[in-house]
Amino acid sequence: MAKWFRQIVFGDVDAMFASAAVVADPSLAGKPVAVGGPPPRGIIAAASYAVRPFGVHSAMPTAHALKLCPNLILVPPDRALYRRLHEQMRQVTDRFFPATEWSSIDEFYADATDLQLLHPDPAALGRTVKDALFEATGLRCTIAVATSKPVAKLAADAHKPDGLAVIEPGTEAAFLAPRPATSLSGIGPKTAESLERIGVRTISDLLEPRFESPLRRMWGKRLPVIQALARGIDDDPVVPDREQKSLGHETTFDHDTDDPAFLEKTLRGFLAELAHELRVEGLAAGSFTVKLKDATHRLTTKQHHFPKPLNDDPMMWRDIRAALLSLMAPRTKYRLAGVTLGDLVPAMGGLFDQRRSRALAAMDAIIEKHGTKAIGLGGIREE
Ligand SMILES: [Mg+2]
Question: Which of 8, 146, 327, 333 is in Cβ range 3.0-4.6 Å of 167 for a Cys bridge?
Answer without folding.
Answer: 146
